[in-house]
Description:
mainly alpha
Amino acid sequence: MKCDDIDRALSGNLRLLEAQEHVKSCTRCQQLASALNMPGGLDMPSSTALRNIAEGIGANLSPVRPIAPAPYLFIAFIGIFLAVAALGVYYMGAFAIAVMTPLQTAVILGALAVSTGLLAYSLVQQMVPGSLHRIPPRILPVSITLLLAIAIAILFQFQHELDFWGNGWACIRAGTPFGFLAAVPIWLLLRRGMLLAPSVTGAATGLFAGLVGTSVLEIHCPNLNAWHILVAHLGVAILCTLAGLISGLTVEMVGKRWVYRSS
Length: 263
């Protein structure tokens, strides 16, 4: 120990003595010192009180069916997609395959398949709170839509079309019902999980269902004008995405109002 250490120790002791003298003559500081010296332990509740608390918590509890494993849910989502898409192609016909080149067919259907797989995987993860997401669910629908638009712009030629809006409306009107048809079993499956972000899940669900209609149109419609495919075919997926987003936002708003009124 050095001289400086002795000086600091003496200085500290002197300050402590000065503080003690001040407390003896100051009512406010005496109250503060008494509050700081109060024992921290609290009386434990009685066994009867603990039993009443436990009974109150467990009064409304009931067993629930555990959620299915993630691979089963993924297969279920893909099965719904394929079933409704096959129904649409069977009902409308596969005329586009005959006019597209093998490269166009492989790339556009492959892009739709990859997009479907990514969305199905994301929806499965969103059903289980705390799941890790390789791609943030908020940006996935936008990213998929942009990538599909780029693929369409590269694969197909932009052409002038005499009755552009009439032909486009015909395809939108034909493809949208298949998206809404797929949305029903998809929603029933989603209800088995716990959705913490309805707007995000709603947008992803809308795009997933809308891609059913887009896939049906890509296989059925022989119009290879890039403008037509972007507006009418991909437009079905975009419309369904907006419908899912609006539905999710509505659920969130209703939930917030309910919590506000309950509080």
